[in-house]
Amino acid sequence: MAEITVFTAKKIHTMNPSLPHASAVAVRDGRIIEVGSLETLKPWLDQHAHHIDNRFADHVIMPGFIDPHLHPTLGAILLTCPFITAMEWRLPDRICPAVTSHEAYVTRLAEIEAEFAGTDDILVTWGFHRIWHGDVNRAVLNAISTTRPIFVWQRSFHEIIANDAGIEWLGVARADLERHPQIDLSTGRFFETGMAVAAQSLNTVLMEPVRFRRGLELVKQAVHLGGHTTIGELAYPLLDDAREWALLSDTLERDDVPFRMKITPRALGRGKFEGNASEDVERIKGFKGRDSHRLFFGNSVKLFTDGGFFAELMQMMDPGFIDGHHGEWLMAPEQFEKHARAFWLEGKQIHVHCTGDMGVELALDTLEKLQAEKPRFNHRFTIEHFGVSNPEQVRRIADLGAIVSANVYYLHELGEAYWQKSIGFERASQMARVGSLERAGVTFALHSDFTMAPALPLNSAWVAVNRIAESGAVLCAEECVSLDAAMRAITIDAAYVLAMENEIGSIRAGKKADFTILEQDPWDVPLEKLRDIPIWGTVFEGTPFPHSK
Amino acid sequence: MSERIPITLLSGYLGSGKTTIVNHLLRAEKNLRLAVLVNDFGAVNIDADLIENSDATSVELTNGCVCCSIGDDLGAALSAQRERTPPPDAILLEASGVSEPARIARLAGHWPGFTLDAIIVAADGETVRQRAGDKFVSHLVQSQLRCADIIALTKTDLISSQASLHVQAWLRTVSPAPVVMAPDGAVPPELAFSVNSGQRMAGAQPEDGQHPAFATFTWTPSHPVDIARLHAVLGNLHEDIHRVKGQLVDARTGTPVLVQKVGQRCAITNASEAEQFCLVMISVDLQMDFKRVAADLDACAVAPG
């Protein structure tokens, strides 16, 4: 048995309400022996070899942060691209400052292009948004380069703008581009189904193995940067199992990786809308036995109701969208019910992607049926994302024993845009209705769904307690949550959503020694400064992992 | 550039009988090399005696057709078909039950190397009305019906003829598309695929002891035609004339044009060169009287002078 290490700290927030604060925590073999003070730890220390580690004497220790829903593979594709974004993005290898005007956008893009000098790489940049960056078109991009293919990828992934060199580089017959109703060669715009034509060529670069591996390395660093010690991959696999498993285990199952990843498989393969539920139950049983130290499956599956929130494809109940368009179902509702039933009867924890209020409604109608057919307790049926909902649904969530994992960042980035352009003020200002969840006593976690939001738990908590939108305005203060609830939502309640609360999420005897080390105390700083608290680094299973300076 | 491969999109909500139609078309189509793209070919249950070979993602059929699963990327699946030697004559694309056919048609019909032929939407005679009022899918089901070129009404053998008439009348209020009866998924391939329709329809004879499934009529103009007048005639065509295809000469320019109409959707585009100038029409109404159409069309021909 190894020696006990005792970490002392200015303050330890245990997130265990029975002993909320402490000043020392004893750790051995990656687990917590006891938390308290040097005084209360004495019986252990008198009998066992130990040493006191005072490196955190000026720091605040919290349980390791948990993001129960992000997608490393998606992040790996994006992080190898330069970002030019309207919001600031703090990434492991760079800080992307907020770029909020057309002129600033063009200047920044020209700078990036200059950095590519001497290579013949294509330039794919992500983050463009017309609301802030105005009309970035083919002519604007040609003025930056006539020789290097430049592709500007829109924030919501639904549009790409290319220069002449880029259009040429795609290698698609010009006649085929010209006749396409969703490709406009004069402005260089490829949108929706037209974007798929461009993406086909771009994927050969973005998914190229060496580049992809570099992207995964950056994701690894981004997860550490946010202060996470556990993440949930909530829809495995993104592409194909064999290739992805090899890449993930090769990149993440290493001694220098300071986090673990719980994997929730998709109930249906990607791109499948129909399928045989009992075959899918068997397919998912096949993941059993694959677990390694950091990568493991549990008892959970992922299902989907409606479309993407950034893409405005959520299913909305009346009165729908201002422009009259309609959302999408990612599975036929009957098929959703069949699959949900099959996994419900297997005793699985079901996570359901729901973005619009009609998506939530389908999930709850289905859960209600299943509860009538075979009542279950502690089933942890989880509503994921929780974009638009109504107060009555919150009550039903509570009645049916469901829980929520919310992407509250929607409110920050999209609250005002959706107020003006999509669904109006009333419903847009109330998106991510987390205050109601707290009042109804519904357990909820906060997630990033990275790269839908930055993988920064303190940033998510900051949105949840302040509801500050992009312009700085507060949207629907009634739906703010308490600081305690927000901090639980990135620690112990996130652990509960992942069904790992007996192992992680709080600092108490017997749990994994996972800590996030903060330079300031979240309960001491003004709420609007919560996201600015510097993170020293983490402790993963007893081993400190400082952020590189 | 080689010819674009035409795509027939088969849409319809979950359980509307799409798979039965796919199986019927695979059996009934004798002359074309088809590629059938489906979300999951396991669910198609292709007749065993048709199957030559199969692996994880495709099934090869004895008649030279192939059935492939789309996987997660329709564009990639289409491009793969284009790479086959020789490429298929036509694609039958079975859309998922929850997809908006208009969107799939935009994606597939404009994918490099492909063009949209027709959108056939299957409607389950038993349940389509109820689904069109459902809390979660009413919009989707109605929207699918609205963007059909042709609606194939399935499972009519399971309902009374009275009920069938009611559902047809109701469909007319929802969608401008003509409705063809397709119990057992029996959509004639000539309706689904326009490739070589001239030769195929003109030469199509019912096999011994079988009734023809459709009526055809070929119109050969005496002179080049006035395109504006032709548009007007085709726009007012009897709704049970389900397809029109052929090449004519534009009286104004003297150059050949390609005429294609399926359901209510009509396109007249420039053609490279023509082998023969005529229009072939097809109707599943065996009693269709083409005489009036012929007279209207004759009035489009412009005598030189």
Written description of the protein model:
The complex is a heterodimer of chains A (549) and B (305). Chain A is of the alpha/beta class and 549 residues long. Chain A has 20 helices and 24 strands. The longest helix of chain A is centred in the middle third of the chain and has 17 residues, at 209-225. The mean pLDDT of chain A is 95. With 305 residues, chain B is an alpha/beta fold. Helix content of chain B is 28%, strand content 26%. In chain B, strand 3 (51-54) and strand 4 (58-61) form a beta hairpin. Chain B is globular. The interface between A and B is large, with 39 and 35 residues.
Radius of gyration of chain B: 19 Å
Helix content of chain A: 25-40%
Strand content of chain B: 25-35%
Q: Which strands sit side by side, in order, in the main sheet of chain B?
A: 3-4-5-2-6-1-7-8-9
Uncertain regions spanning at least 5 consecutive residues of chain B: none
- Rg of Cα set of chain A: 24 Å
Termini separation of chain A? 33 Å
Tally of separate helices of chain B:
10
Which class best fits the helix and strand makeup of chain A? alpha/beta
Instruction: Write the H/E string of chain B, N to C.
Output: EHEEEEHEHEHHEHEHHEHEEEEH
Give the CA-CA distance, first to last residue of chain B. 37 Å
Average pLDDT confidence of chain A is 95
How would a textbook summarize the main sheet of chain B?
Answer: 9 strands, mixed
Average pLDDT, all residues of chain B? 88
Q: What's the β-strand tally of chain B?
A: 14
Q: For the largest interface in this structure, which chains are involved and how many residues does each contribute? A: A-B, 39 and 35 residues
